[in-house]
Amino acid sequence: MSDARGTTGFLTVLLGGAGLLHVARPAPFDSIVPPALPGSARGYTYASGAAELGVAGLLAIPRTRRLGGLAATALFIAVFPANIQMAYDWRHARPRKRVIAYGRLPLQGVLIAQALHVARSV
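The structure corresponding to this sequence follows.
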């Protein structure tokens, strides 16, 4: 169970921090919202930031932790198109930026696995 606690803590901090960044500095997140989505990129940035903060809250409270793990799984799947968009947009960028953009793709699978682990460990 301690492994699940560490994973829960990591995901809580990651999602809480990301949610705060989406609100405090939305421009970098706006730039990776797929243009095919209807509406404004800023709306998606704020919505995903609010979702991240909400999921972090669910993970932080033992009574809602299972729901938080499931919600984190859904959130990580939902934002994956932004990671694909970033990889596409940065495909001709400097090598460092390409490594970051391409590295996010498999990392999303790791985050999904961790969120499922939390949901199943409660």
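The longest helix spans residues 95-121.
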